[in-house]
Amino acid sequence: MEEQRAAHAAELYALLTESALHEFTDSDPPSSAEWLEARFRRLENRCSPDGTQQWLNWVIRTAEGKAAGYVQATVNAEGSAEIAFVLGLPYWGRGLAEMASAQMMDILVRRHGVTRFTATADTRNARSVRLLERLGFKRVGSGDSRDASFECRAAAIRAPRKAPSPPERESRQA
């Protein structure tokens, strides 16, 4: 796992254009590699425009070094983080999203003082719901909405079932 940079757009663009990745989200595939690079460049600030949130993004790499997707977190001042993950179709079912999400959550606890995690998933997206449950998330609230909210306290984080990926590359963050 490594911090996401604008340069990663070229590697990730083809993976992120798969329509199946966007089936359960309200986002569209990136319109071009240039658009994705510009978006990633804006995210390099690691901070919301008003300075109230940290926007942290990491690229998931396979053992062979291929970019497979990304994990992201929006960290709020009160010690909570909303997390998300996107993994290219060729890499589904290998445990990569689970390992990267668990590694990210560990980083957020140790380096950013996060004590509570939240996530949103479409209830029809069984893979994402199962992944959140394996990480220790519980569904909160009720209702018939397709988007369900999940929550996990730092103490409830579950380690991934497989060996963790290599440690993230160290870098300096503001």
From TrEMBL:
UniProtKB keywords: Transferase
UniProt-listed InterPro entries: Acyl_CoA_acyltransferase, GNAT_dom, N-acetyltransferase
- The domain of life for this entry's organism is Bacteria
Domain N-acetyltransferase residues, every copy:
11-164
What Gene Ontology molecular function terms does this protein carry? acyltransferase activity, transferring groups other than amino-acyl groups
Entries under Pfam families matching the protein? Acetyltransf_3
| Membrane-crossing segments per the record | none
> PANTHER family, alphabetically?
GNAT FAMILY, PUTATIVE (AFU_ORTHOLOGUE AFUA_3G00765)-RELATED-RELATED, N-ACETYLTRANSFERASE DOMAIN-CONTAINING PROTEIN
Q: What is this protein called?
A: GNAT family N-acetyltransferase
